Amino acid sequence: MNKINQLKNILHKENCDAYLIPKNDEYFGEYVSENKDRLKFITGFTGSTALALIFKNKSYLFVDGRYTLQAKTEVNKDFKICEVPKIKPEQILKRINKKITIGFDPKLFTSNFLKNIVANNLINLKAVNNRRIYG
């Protein structure tokens, strides 16, 4: 079973509709060590900045214009590549007309980012044990 399907199984067990994965580690430094590169582990993307939003039935990778071509070659074709700022995660979430629960690792996000994600969206955030996801 591939990593995306394993993640989707965990989403089901955790009663989550989606999961957020940033490029950064818990230290928010410029570089992420190989063993902390959660985004690469799940998606295969090696660029220096990105965010994945993985639903049970659709997956998105948000990158800036520098990484659009790279993402298309490195990431599974099931991902929709979204170029920020043309398309932001908040815009995808606003299209959903029902309350959803998004799993995340709280050590990897700032409070401002999380506030922006939940603002004007029907979203519950749920901390999920990342060992279940990343082994």
UniProtKB/TrEMBL annotation:
Database matches in Pfam families: Creatinase_N (PF01321)
InterPro entries the record matches: Creatin/AminoP/Spt16_N (IPR029149), Creatinase_N (IPR000587), X-Pro_aminopeptidase_P (IPR050422)
Keyword flag Protease: yes
Keywords: Aminopeptidase, Hydrolase, Protease
UniProt domain Creatinase N-terminal: residue ranges: 4-117
GO molecular function list: aminopeptidase activity
Superkingdom field: Bacteria
Cross-referenced PANTHER family: XAA-PRO AMINOPEPTIDASE 1
Protein name: Xaa-Pro aminopeptidase
Phylogenetic placement of the source organism: Bacteria, Pseudomonadati, Pseudomonadota, Alphaproteobacteria, Candidatus Pelagibacterales
